[in-house]
Amino acid sequence: MADLEALKQKYAPVIEEIQGFSDLGATLEEPSLDGEQLHLKATVPSVVVANRVWDVIKATDATYTDLHHEMATSGGDTQAYTIKSGDNLSKIAKRFYGEASKYTAIAEANGIDDPNKIQVGQELTLRVIS
């Protein structure tokens, strides 16, 4: 019999990643068991966020055979983001893409000539990147 608490602990990074996007509308139902698998049912705001969660799933366990996931997106292929105090493009890239170095892709996609000159309240459109 699968141990719910052990599986929740194993997939804690995934659970935390989903919850980390709650400010953008991500929701996660209470994790439960589905036979021998941890059942995670979530809704995330975009494919950009879904891809980030997938990255964390694969980093946690590349086979994820003990995970039953249902992840729906409530939006499309892009993710809107409003720059907040303390943000920089590297921090935003780390959050959405897992790599701070992808800040250049955000700058290019949003027509930002100088990544060091962003403003609180400025709207960004984040796209799926590889």
Provide a brief overview of the structure:
The protein has 5 helices and 6 strands, in the order ααβββαββααβ.
Order of helices and strands: HHEEEHEEHHE
Characterize the main sheet: 4 strands, mixed
Give start-end ranges of low-pLDDT stretches.
none
Q: Hey, roughly how much beta strand do the residues contain?
A: 15-25%
Q: According to CATH, what is the topology of the largest domain?
A: GMP Synthetase, Chain A, domain 3
Number of domains: 2
Backbone CA Rg: 16 Å
Terminal-residue CA separation: 38 Å
What's the overall average pLDDT, rounded? 97
Number of helices: 5
Q: So what's the CATH class of the largest domain?
A: Alpha Beta
Tell how many strands the DSSP assignment holds.
6
- The helix content, as a percent range, equals 25-40%
CATH architecture assignment name of the largest domain: 2-Layer Sandwich
Gross geometry: elongated
Structural class: alpha+beta
What does this 3D model show about the protein?
- There is one protein chain.
- Strands 1, 2, 3 and 4 form a 4-stranded mixed beta sheet that branches. The chain has a two-stranded antiparallel ribbon with strand order 5-6.
- The protein has 5 helices and 6 strands; from the N terminus they run H-H-E-E-E-H-E-E-H-H-E.
- Helix 2 runs antiparallel to helix 3 (about 45-60) and helix 4 (about 90-95) crosses helix 5 (about 105-110).
- The termini are far apart.
- The protein folds into 2 domains: about 5-75, 2-Layer Sandwich (GMP Synthetase, Chain A, domain 3), CATH 3.30.300; about 80-125, LysM domain (Membrane-bound Lytic Murein Transglycosylase D, Chain A, Roll), CATH 3.10.350.
- It has about 130 residues and is an alpha+beta fold.
- The protein has helices at about 5-10, 10-20, 45-60, 90-95, 105-110; strands at about 25-30, 30-35, 35-45, 65-75, 80, 125.
- The radius of gyration is 16 Å and the shape is elongated.
- A hairpin with a 2-residue loop joins strand 2 (about 30-35) and strand 3 (about 35-45).
